[in-house]
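Whiteboard transcription, Tuesday session. T.W. wrote the structure tokens on the left side:
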């Protein structure tokens, strides 16, 4: 019984393959992150601005602002750190990242049967 099932399923597994029919739309974006809320010394401000967590978080936000279904595909460049002096506290700074480059992707409409009445 088990051998019959095995010989039935073997050709099915060998000759059937999942087609990569899903197509994507890609879009490259360049944007800046927001400056930190608190004023810190230059070294601390640069470190906190360039944290990988901030790069991932802002990259995700950049793609989500494109609309429904957009996701991060690749972070091409994490940008450069830019700092500004705090006006109320001399010697302390707030830093942010400039020119973060991200590739966003979205499933192409109609490529996976999303349109009613087709296929």
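and on the right, the sequence the group agreed on:
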């Amino acid at each position: 019984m088990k051998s019959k099932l095995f010989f039935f399923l073997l050709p099915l597994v060998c000759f059937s393959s999942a087609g990569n029919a899903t197509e994507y739309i890609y879009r490259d974006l360049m944007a800046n992150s927001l400056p930190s809320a608190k004023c810190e010394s230059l070294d601390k401000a640069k470190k906190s601005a360039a944290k990988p967590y901030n790069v991932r978080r802002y990259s995700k936000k950049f793609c989500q602002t494109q609309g429904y279904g957009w996701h991060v595909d690749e972070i091409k460049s994490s940008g450069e750190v830019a700092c500004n002096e705090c006006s109320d506290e001399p010697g302390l700074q707030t830093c942010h990242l400039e020119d973060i480059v991200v590739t966003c992707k979205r499933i192409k409409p109609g490529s996976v049967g999303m349109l009613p009445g087709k296929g």
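Someone added at the bottom: The first helix runs from residue 2 to 15.
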